[in-house]
Amino acid sequence: YIKAKINMVAGGFNNNPKPNVKVLVEDKMGKELLNKLLNGEEIKRKYNIKIEITNGDGVIKTLANNVPKALKDFVLLPDGDMKKKIKEGNNVVFLPGHSAPETFLYKFLFLLPEEHVFWENASLFDKNACFNGYVDKDTEKDHKKWVSAVKNQLNNSQFTFNNFLSASIKLWKLECKSDRCNFLSAFDNACMYSGKYY
């Protein structure tokens, strides 16, 4: 009896364990972005989320447009730029924005004024350093190069790319509350749907 009581008090009796949710993203940047979007959110306490990379939009597009029953237990999470190429469904949710994660990040930060508190908190990494050589770039290819350049710049500093991405997404969640809520709601619905089949 005492052992049972201790387990109950400590949360040992859990008739409803957290559902497992498998999420497929296009690439490493999509995985990094999703992890940052979910940090500190209730949804992480609700599900056991495992993120896997499909290595490209072609794979995830094929899966999303022809989802066999065997894949209904996955949440498919393509980049925002795939919205015109992929049918939305119960288990298909898009990363925020209408572009690849690199472009999403570039455009959000590029619009921040130089005097924004974000650049003060970024330590020795101000707006000029961040966009050095990548001002007014409009292509996804340029934005991917920009992310690589930022990673290289931060590689040997205390303010790592991981910290930079965390701070960027934390700010986005504060400044774009409606987009944040819409994404989390859609992701939660997809997790509930896929959880039925796990």
Please describe the topology of this protein.
Blueprint: H1 2-9, E1 20-25, H2 28-38, H3 43-46, E2 48-53, H4 57-65, E3 74-77, H5 101-110, H6 117-121, H7 127-130, H8 140-154, H9 161-175, H10 177-195
Parallel strand pairs: 1-2, 1-3
Molecular structure report:
The protein has helices at residues 2-9, 28-38, 43-46, 57-65, 101-110, 117-121, 127-130, 140-154, 161-175, 177-195; strands at residues 20-25, 48-53, 74-77. By secondary structure, the chain is mainly alpha-helical. It has a three-stranded parallel sheet with strand order 2-1-3, sandwiched between helices. α2 packs across α9 (161-175). The longest helix has 19 residues, at 177-195. The chain is globular, with a radius of gyration of 19 Å. The mean pLDDT is 85.
Short description:
By secondary structure, this protein is mostly helical.
Biggest sheet record: 3 strands, parallel
Percent of residues in helices comes to 40-55%
Overall number of strands: 3
Helix/strand class: mainly alpha
Rounded to an integer, what's the Rg over CA atoms? Answer: 19 Å
Mean pLDDT: 85
* Tally of DSSP helical segments: 10
Q: Biggest sheet, strands in spatial order?
A: 2-1-3
Q: Strand portion, in percent?
A: 5-15%
Q: Span between N and C termini?
A: 34 Å
